[in-house]
């Protein structure tokens, strides 16, 4: 306990049952526990730090290390090296870096280990204790020498050395001879000894043979991963070499094509030079003849032009006089955009033709801009002798346009529901045949179980729609005031003010109609119906005549009652002026009251100020601006035509396919077979098998996930909202969780109500006018599925973060974008201080989620150890998901894609798997690079630009 004092250590002893005693080393206090409880107590009092248990036999010095290297950094580095060791204490470093003392039980893998772009040297400080020596012989020096150098041959063991001399026991032997030994016992003893020796030798040989065989098997099994890794590396190198060959062959073909084109240009220039020389000589000869001819022709033309110009001027003067006289008598004519309506000028890929006697063009068709937008084809038919027939084909929609909509039920009025009584409701037993029917019955039971709390009919209908509804397209446009009419000052006031404004417009229209005094039947009928509408108008207590009789302010000379018959023009004028004054006072009073109400609300709730000042939400797609550029090959100034290689589409409507434009053209809507064997073989060799422990979803976990949503979280196509799930009784939640558990174990398929997503295209900041690329498609899924997937994604990312390298950032806890910039900034600063070069490369994957291949990502996640109870239902959901684009409350036809939708909480897990693949691939094939990744922003740094180029090649 580095930061604890005596009181803190005593408190820890009292709060933890596994602590046996308190220990002290100088001013530091610690806890004494049993060896089996050491890891648990360490994690309890030192959370966030790695527990390393190593018996220190060797002590080593690791140098140099980067400046600022702390104990947890060194622990992570030792784990990355695969060396079971732990940091002991820092040592004195030098200008090259820091030094640390490390203790271990075994020797390091190598004396030089990589640290970033450099290496750290590992030197021994203390080795294992010396082996204990044997027992010493206590004897004289002569005896020890005799024991060591006693090499004299000895006699046979069967001959008694005293048989040739005086044996002191000879007399006793003769007196008492030994009984003879039985021969059979000796023979049996020898046979037994022989059998024991044979069995022992056989067992020893068998044991040695088994040991040798096991060693061979272990050696072969240990070599298999190495051979497999070597095979994968050779395959990747062959693929990379193939890329190089393709690039070099392409470059060679381009160079040879350029050489051939240069030769052709040189030959063409030489031929043109010879032609120019001949042309110059011809021009010189012709110039002399032309000069004489022009001189004579000019004199003749001068006389003829003078006569013709005089006659033409007289004719034009007469025509202008007649035209001016006609325009004075006629009404003003409307201008027509002749450029848009001129059909036979080449814009419709038709060569200009002479329509009058095949000699001149005198027949034209002029269209307004509105009709030009409906133009679809142009034809010229020569059925008649003198004039050709010009045909313009228009496409006019007949009938009412049908649109598709996806109605959602209204939100429940939960403020009128007693939570205590509602929470006690039980979910009935649902007998179902399919999961789709089960969800429909479950939703109906959920809505109808509010006993005693009647909701409007619009609040019912959750999970009841499987297809969009067909309807008519009705456009309701606002009606502003006409020129000369009284305008409305504030259109945000109540309905009664708008009713008074309509009454004001009726009175003004009546005043003008009475002043015009037209006597046609239609005009008389219009004035009578208008006066009838004035008398029967709504918005006045007791009707307009009653209000007029009891009005608080009256103009001088105005009567107290309204006439039942049509009034005169003078009375209508005075009535209009008086009501206009009353309306202005009524409008200003409502405006002041609205201002006071808003002011009081802002004074009571200061959060409304922040809501008013916050930035507006991103705009949804309303109009797509598609810009196309076309090359121009040639221009004809006489006919004002251009020549282009392709056919242009300049008509009003352009076909727009949903899954090609709004979802990007590079996304495949249908699965395409691709060979991912290289990637899967690489994963089999270099990917570890992790252990993901995903606990079952409980009611507490479910409610905690719902509480993380915003108050106004978007609803999906099934109609469920955040408050519906939050107010759902516990028994209903348990039934819903049992159904999700059955889906995870593939006992139930996904309901069709959850297999539909509404795509909302939100404008990117600063790129709203950039066409399709200026919008980000967000898929709105069911909030029930989003809650399930968010719980599983949170569990997977928390466990995956423990195995991801520090340079892999994004979506995981404490791995933000600032960490990437901090790492790059520190790298640049250290290299700048040490005067070392550094180079780097960074790229961004366009439409990352929409371009991730689904099948290999799911297989790689399974190889990493993600449970199939999540992968299989997730893959089944993505395979059946149908997206419908939502624009102006209208939905498109359903489209499918082979990618991961942006809006699925599990999609970040797929991106993390892709980042893990990129980081591992770069580490295996070019360890001198330092790879970084933040979601779809991938980068790497190196000491030289050549290594960076090598990394770019590997990344491709």
Automatic annotation (TrEMBL):
<dbReference type="Pfam" id="PF00078">
    <property type="entry name" value="RVT_1"/>
</dbReference>
<dbReference type="InterPro" id="IPR000477">
    <property type="entry name" value="RT_dom"/>
</dbReference>
<protein>
    <recommendedName>
        <fullName>Reverse transcriptase domain-containing protein</fullName>
    </recommendedName>
</protein>
<feature type="domain" description="Reverse transcriptase">
    <location>
        <begin position="772"/>
        <end position="936"/>
    </location>
</feature>
């Amino acid at each position: 306990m580095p930061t604890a004092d005596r009181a803190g250590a005593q408190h820890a002893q009292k709060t933890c049952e596994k602590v046996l005693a308190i220990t002290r080393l100088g001013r530091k206090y610690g806890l004494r526990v049993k060896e089996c409880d050491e890891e648990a107590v360490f994690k309890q009092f030192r959370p966030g730090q790695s527990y390393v248990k190593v018996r220190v036999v060797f002590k080593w010095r690791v140098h140099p290390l980067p400046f600022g290297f702390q104990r947890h950094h060194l622990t992570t580095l030792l784990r990355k090296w695969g060396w079971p060791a732990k940091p002991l204490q820092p040592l004195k470093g030098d200008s090259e870096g820091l030094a640390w003392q490390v203790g271990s039980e075994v020797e390091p893998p190598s004396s030089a280990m990589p640290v970033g772009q450099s290496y750290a040297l590992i030197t021994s400080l203390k080795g294992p204790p010396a082996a204990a020596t044997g027992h010493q012989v206590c004897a004289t020096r002569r005896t020890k020498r005799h024991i060591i150098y006693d090499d004299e041959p000895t006699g046979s063991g069967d001959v008694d050395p005293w048989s040739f001399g005086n044996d002191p026991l000879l007399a006793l032997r003769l007196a008492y001879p030994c009984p003879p030994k039985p021969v059979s016992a000796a023979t049996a003893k020898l046979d037994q000894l022989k059998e024991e020796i044979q069995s022992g030798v056989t067992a020893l040989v068998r044991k040695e043979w088994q040991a040798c065989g096991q060693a061979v098997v272990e050696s072969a099994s240990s070599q298999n991963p190495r051979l497999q890794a070597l095979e994968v590396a050779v395959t990747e190198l062959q693929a990379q070499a193939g890329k190089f060959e393709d690039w070099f062959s392409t470059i060679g073909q381009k160079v040879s094509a350029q050489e051939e084109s240069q030769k052709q240009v040189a030959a063409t220039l030489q031929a043109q030079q010879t032609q120019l020389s001949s042309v110059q000589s011809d021009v010189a000869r012709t110039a002399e003849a032309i000069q004489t001819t022009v001189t004579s022709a000019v004199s003749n033309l001068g006389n003829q032009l003078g006569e013709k110009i005089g006659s033409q001027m007289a004719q034009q003067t007469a025509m202008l006089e007649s035209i001016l006289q006609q325009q004075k008598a006629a009404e003003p004519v409307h201008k027509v955009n002749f450029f848009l309506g001129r059909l036979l000028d080449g814009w419709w890929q038709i060569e200009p033709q002479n329509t009058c006697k095949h000699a001149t063009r005198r027949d034209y068709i002029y269209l307004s801009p509105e009709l030009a937008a409906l133009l679809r084809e142009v034809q010229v038919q020569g059925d008649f002798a003198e004039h050709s027939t010009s045909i313009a084909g228009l496409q006019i929609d007949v009938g009412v346009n049908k649109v598709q909509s996806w109605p959602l039920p209204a939100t429940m009025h939960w403020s009128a529901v007693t939570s205590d009584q509602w929470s006690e409701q039980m979910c009935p037993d649902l007998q179902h045949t399919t999961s789709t029917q089960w969800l429909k019955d479950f939703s109906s039971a959920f809505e109808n179980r509010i006993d005693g709390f009647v909701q409007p009919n619009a609040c019912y209908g959750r999970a009841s729609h499987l297809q969009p509804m067909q309807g008519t397209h009705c456009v309701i446009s606002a009606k502003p005031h006409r020129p000369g009419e009284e305008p409305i000052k504030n259109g945000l006031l109540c309905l009664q003010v708008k009713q008074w404004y309509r009454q004001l417009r009726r009175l003004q229209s009546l005043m003008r109609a009475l002043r015009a005094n037209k006597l046609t039947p239609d005009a008389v009928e219009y004035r009578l119906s208008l006066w009838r509408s004035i008398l029967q108008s709504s918005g006045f207590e007791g009707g307009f005549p009653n209000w007029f009789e009891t009005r608080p302010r009256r103009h001088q000379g105005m009567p107290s009652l309204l006439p039942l018959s049509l009034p005169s023009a003078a009375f209508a004028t005075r009535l209009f002026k008086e009501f206009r004054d009353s309306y202005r006072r009524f409008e200003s009073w409502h405006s002041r009251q609205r201002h006071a109400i808003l002011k009081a609300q802002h004074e009571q709730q200061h959060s409304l100020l922040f809501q008013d000042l916050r930035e507006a939400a991103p705009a949804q797609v309303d109009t797509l601006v598609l810009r196309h550029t076309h090359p121009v090959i040639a221009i004809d100034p006489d006919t004002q035509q251009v020549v282009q290689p392709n056919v242009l589409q300049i008509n009003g409507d352009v076909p727009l396919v949903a899954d090609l434009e709004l979802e990007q053209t590079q996304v495949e809507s249908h699965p395409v077979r691709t060979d991912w064997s290289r990637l899967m073989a690489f994963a089999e060799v270099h990917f570890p098998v992790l252990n993901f422990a995903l606990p079952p979803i409980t009611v507490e976990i479910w409610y905690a996930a719902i509480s993380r949503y915003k108050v106004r979280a978007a609803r999906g196509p099934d109609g469920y909202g955040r408050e519906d799930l939050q107010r759902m009784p516990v028994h209903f939640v348990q039934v819903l969780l049992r159904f999700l558990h059955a889906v995870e174990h593939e006992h139930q398929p996904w309901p069709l109500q959850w297999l539909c997503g509404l795509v909302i295209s939100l404008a990117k900041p600063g790129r709203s006018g950039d066409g399709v690329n200026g919008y980000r498609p967000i898929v709105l899924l069911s909030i029930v599925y989003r809650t399930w997937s968010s719980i599983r994604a949170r569990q997977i990312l928390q466990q995956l973060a423990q195995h991801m390298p520090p340079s892999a950032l994004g979506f995981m806890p404490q791995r933000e974008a600032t960490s990437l910039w901090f790492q790059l900034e520190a790298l640049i600063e250290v290299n700048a201080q040490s005067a070392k070069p550094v180079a780097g490369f960074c790229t961004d994957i366009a439409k990352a989620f929409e371009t991730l291949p689904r099948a290999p990502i799911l297989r790689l996640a399974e190889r990493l150890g993600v449970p199939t109870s999540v992968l299989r239902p997730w893959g089944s959901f993505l395979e059946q998901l149908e997206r419908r684009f939502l624009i102006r409350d209208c939905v498109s036809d359903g489209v499918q894609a082979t990618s991961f939708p942006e809006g699925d909480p599990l999609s970040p897990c797929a991106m993390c798997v892709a980042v893990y693949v990129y980081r591992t691939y770069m580490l295996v094939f070019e360890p001198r690079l330092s790879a970084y990744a933040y979601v779809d922003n991938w980068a790497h740094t190196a000491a030289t630009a050549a290594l960076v180029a090598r990394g770019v090649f590997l990344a491709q």
